[in-house]
Amino acid sequence: MLIALYGIRLWYYDGTHIKGTIKELTKIQRQAGIWILGAFKSTPTGAVESLAGLIPIHLQIQKLVYRNHVHMHMLADSHITHLMAATRNEAEFISVYHPSQLRNKCRSPLVDMWANENLVDVFVLPYNKYNASGYRLTDTCPDRIVQDIVLIQGKTAKDRAKAREACLMTLNQSFARSSTSNSCIAIITDASVPLLSTGYQAIVAWHTWHIDHYFENFRSSGLATSNDAEMNAIGGALSALLDVFNSINGIEEIHIYSDSTYALHHMLDLSIHSTQLYMR
Questions:
Q1: How far is CA 233 from each of CA 96, 152, 196, 277, rounded to the nearest angstrom?
Q2: Residues 143, 137: contact at Cβ < 8 Å?
């Protein structure tokens, strides 16, 4: 039935003649129910659907259409569907072609969608409000967020070895300053992701330094990718700061050391991505 109902919103909307289509779909579902139960061909359709646990086709279609209405009204204002239909931002369009008036003039899925706007009574943003331009942390605090990511480059192996030694020396100096400063916290995170064939779960760990205080912790990250596990480690370390320290007043800088450039880039990214789960 998933194949038969594909594109249902193109032909199921108010004003269309679908009696024959519903009848044919009911026949298809009846045949499927008889095959599932091994029943006789003379078995009533209602009995077949009840015993096979199948929703009557007209109720199934109504459920799918209702879900589509809800999904459409939860889209972002900049979504292409809003630009194709009577959006709330186009006051002039709405005043001339109000859904109730437009509905009397023509029939289409878009008109039917906006005529049923009252089906959604919960205001839900499909994106984080702080992910809009001007509200991101990188926009509001550009001077307080620094990503010092050094790539090991060199034409020969000897050049790359020298670049690696220079990078290691810089990291050691930076960690020595951040771990002994009164106004700074140093965090080192790492993750270990075993091969999927082993069936073992990923492990994440973090170490926190502040003057003479040192804390470490680890936890399971489940079956996760390397990027998700690295982000889980950073999220766990940041979440544990308030548990480790009674107060972080007076802390001006938090230095995070990780070998995952992906995690460092995405830890302030509020867009939709798989590692969003760990940065709540």
A1: 54, 24, 19, 12
A2: no
Q: Which CATH class is domain 137-278?
A: alpha beta
Note whether 230 and 262 are within 8 A (CB). yes
* DSSP secondary structure letter of residue 142: T
pLDDT digits (tens, 9 = 90+) for 223-245: 888 888 998 899 888 888 877 77
Domain range summary for the chain, segments of one domain joined by +: 8-119, 137-278
Tokens linked to 248: 């972080």
Residue ranges of alpha helices (H) inside 129-272 are 137-140, 157-180, 226-244, 261-266
* Phi then psi dihedrals of residue 155, to 5 deg: -75, -35
184-192 and 253-257 as β-strands: parallel, antiparallel, unpaired? parallel
Ordered DSSP codes for 11-34: T-STT---HHHHHHHHHHHHHHHH
pLDDT tens digits for 169-203? 888 888 888 888 888 999 999 999 988 778 788 89
